[in-house]
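Hey all, quick one. A colleague (J.T.) asked me to put the iron/sulfur cluster job into the tracker so the inputs and the structure tokens live in one place instead of scattered across chat threads. No bug as far as I know, just bookkeeping. Sequence used:
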Amino acid sequence: MTNTTTNNHTINYPELVEKIKCWGKELGFSQLGITDIDLSKHEQALEKWLANNYHGNMDYMARHGLMRARPAELELGTIRAISVRLDYLPTKAKCARILKAKDHAYISRYALGRDYHKLMRKRLQQLGKKITEYFENLACESFNFRPFVDSAPILERPLAEKAGLGWVGKHSLLLNKEAGSWFFLGELLIDIPLPVTSIAPDNTEATVNDCGNCVACIKICPTQAIVEPYIVDARRCISYFTIESPDPIPLELRPLMGNRIYGCDDCQLICPWNKYAKLSLENDFQARHQLDEITLLALFSWDEAYFLATFEGSPIRRIGFQSWQRNIAVALGNAPWDAHIISALEGKLTVASALVAEHIHWAIAQQELKNPKNITNLSNARNDASNNSTVRLNARLIRSVEKGLPRDA
Ligand code: B12
Ligand code: SF4
Ligand code: SF4
């Protein structure tokens, strides 16, 4: 049923799909697909993930229950989803260079520029309007749509996979053979029976999982957050405890963060498919305020007013100044010994909140352990043992990026 007669007008759905694809391109989306909304085969995995408490304190993940896998319950009348991809990797991503520079701040490459939520939602809204106009021009019944970008209630990756945008990799992100994984996802829930773009007529999914025997992302994760293929325990993920959680960062995870102060890209940096990743065409996703090569000390010197003003329109503003300082303090503790670091940490103690102050004390203690004056053979040996595997893992990642992703290194 590709053609439907409404109010005596025949809608040529295959033609409309082609138009939607063109509009998607004009609006700057990197790819667009259309899928039905049956996610029933994901319900059990979602329930198990929540039952294991892998969502930590992201209460919004549990709030909607199985509605997240049932878009029609979320938006009555929904029968299809238009799923879109938008590439975000900035030119000169300098990933290896900054991961190597321990006194610099590594910020996830998706967050160097402007916030993607507004940008994508606006464009999805425009796409919805174009379809509405198409219907209006034919004097047909109304068409309804609702855009989503990173909205908790929807399982975006399984939907995108069904729409033919790629496959869910073992790191749980969506991957594409021609575009790697450095992209955002968004979707428009709609109430018209568009032909789907990826499900074969016999209803076997056309998308192939091309991870094969590879387990590189699972092995490289600094905090072992990918607890089994396709399953991430958010509570262990650097992205969760530097962005989502306002709580103290667990002590055992702090040294594993290294200089990552906002999110983490390691499981994507190690992925061989990212050598095919496309650079973003969006000016908005290019680094602002030199966030791609800024020192930890420079960022730590900011006060709250400067933080709020500088991050106007940036996703980083959402975490608030306390979490921002908390994260930088931990990274300063992980940096090589430097008297300037200790004085900067001490300098902030008088104005820091109790939570930040606790992280500053931790960082000062870490710095003192590395102070050449204090190093005894015993403390040296203890330090080496705990740091060695983190250092080795990081060195392996850097080598792999330099070799495999030279453009982005
Ligand atoms: C909560 C959340 C997080 C949490 C939890 C992550 C997670 N893996 O679930 C945290 C804070 C840790 C996080 C981190 C990141 N996130 Co996030 N996150 C989300 C959010 C809001 C919900 C994800 C979710 O529903 N998780 C719950 C689990 C159960 O769902 P799921 O992983 O989709 O799992 C289903 C399928 O994978 C499926 N499945 C598929 N195949 C298979 C195979 C097997 C064998 C099994 C068992 C299951 C299975 O089973 C599950 C059941 O439904 C989405 C946006 C959205 N609404 O979807 C963005 C989203 C997934 N995040 C995104 C990004 C970019 C990131 C980071 C890269 C950011 C960063 N650089 O720091 C990291 C990556 C970490 C990682 N490896 O996942 C993008 C991913 C884009 C892409 N290419 O896939 C999204 C889609 C946002 C967006 N709109 O673009 N994120
Ligand atoms: S984002 Fe980092 S911490 Fe999270 S799963 Fe990937 S590698 Fe692990
Ligand atoms: S690193 Fe390997 S296992 Fe992980 S997502 Fe990429 S191809 Fe799949």
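Adding what we noticed when we looked at it: The chain has two domains: 2-91+111-190, 216-277+291-408. The radius of gyration is 23 Å.
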